[in-house]
């Protein structure tokens, strides 16, 4: 009987290990492999109805929480450069010097980036507040990368995201408050729960021209 009990416990432990490994594999693929694949085949994928429906569903789901006080992700408001429509895109965001950094996951062909460059400005909801931002520019390197919390830096590196859009706060924005809130994100991870904000927006891409 004891042998059967021990064997049953080993089988259960093995099953738990297999399930945990499977879940970890799915999470790794979602956060690392998928962004790389989508970046490489972005135009082809966006031309397929099923993929566009998945993207729209993802955006709708994350849009409701992004930019809120308890979320570390931001909600970017930008105007279509051709259509003139207003779009809201959930993205990872982090305070940086006089503004914010947004990961440029798909390069400079990303619609929200092209819209920002055309308009020269946009709005970002972050931590329950809305900031008017301007003068978008692409930055990279250690200074821009190391502003992110360690967990997000690892995900950025694994996903191959090395470029960021630096949006500067308008002259009347409270820059000092941006820096103080950024320090909470960097040094108080247990105080402000967040969910891999750097990788948020890996699928937050839609036709927004």
Which helices and strands, and how do they pair?
Elements: H1 2-40, H2 42-46, H3 49-63, E1 73-79, E2 86-92, E3 94-96, E4 99-103, H4 111-119, E5 121-126, E6 129-140, H5 142-145, H6 150-158, E7 163-169, H7 175-187
Antiparallel strand pairs: 1-2, 1-5, 3-4, 4-7, 5-6, 6-7
Order of helices and strands: HHHEEEEHEEHHEH
Shape: globular
Name the strands of the widest sheet in spatial order: 2-1-5-6-7-4-3
CATH superfamily: Electron Transport, Fmn-binding Protein, Chain A
Main beta sheet: strand number and arrangement?
7 strands, antiparallel
Oligomerization category of the chains in this entry:
single chain
Average pLDDT figure: 75
Amount of helix = 40-55%
Instruction: Provide the number of structural domains.
Output: 1
Class by alpha and beta content: alpha+beta
Low-confidence stretches: 175-196, 199-203
Per CATH, the architecture is Roll
Cα separation of the termini: 69 Å
Radius of gyration: 20 Å
Count of DSSP H/I helices? 7
Report the sheet-strand fraction: 15-25%
What does this structure look like?
- Keywords: Membrane, Transmembrane, Transmembrane helix.
- Residues 187-209 are annotated as: Disordered.
- It holds the Pfam family F420H2_quin_red.
- By secondary structure, this protein is an alpha+beta fold.
- It has one domain (2-187): Roll (Pnp Oxidase, Chain A).
- Helix content is 45%, strand content 22%.
- The chain is built from seven helices and seven strands.
- The chain has helices spanning 2-40, 42-46, 49-63, 111-119, 142-145, 150-158, 175-187, and strands at 73-79, 86-92, 94-96, 99-103, 121-126, 129-140, 163-169.
- The chain has a seven-stranded antiparallel sheet.
- A hairpin with a 2-residue loop joins strand 5 (121-126) and strand 6 (129-140).
- Residues 175-196 and 199-203 have low confidence and may be disordered.
């Amino acid at each position: 009987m004891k042998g059967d009990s021990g064997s049953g416990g080993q089988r259960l432990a093995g099953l738990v290990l297999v399930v945990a490994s499977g879940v970890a594999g799915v999470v790794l693929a979602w956060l690392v492999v998928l962004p790389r694949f989508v970046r490489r085949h972005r135009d082809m994928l966006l031309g397929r109805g099923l993929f566009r429906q998945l993207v729209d569903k993802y955006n709708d789901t994350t849009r409701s929480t992004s930019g809120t006080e308890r979320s570390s992700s931001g909600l970017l408001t930008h105007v279509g450069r051709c259509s003139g429509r207003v779009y809201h895109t959930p993205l990872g965001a982090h305070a940086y010097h006089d503004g914010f950094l947004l990961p440029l996951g798909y390069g400079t062909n990303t619609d929200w980036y092209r819209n920002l460059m055309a308009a020269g400005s946009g709005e970002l909801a972050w931590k329950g507040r809305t900031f008017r931002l301007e003068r978008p520019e692409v930055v990279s390197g250690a200074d821009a990368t190391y502003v992110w919390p360690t967990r997000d830096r690892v995900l950025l590196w694994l996903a191959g995201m090395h470029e960021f859009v630096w949006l500067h706060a308008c002259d009347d924005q409270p820059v000092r408050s941006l820096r103080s809130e950024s320090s909470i994100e960097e040094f108080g991870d247990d105080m402000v729960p967040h969910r891999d904000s750097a990788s948020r927006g890996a699928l937050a891409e839609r036709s927004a021209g």
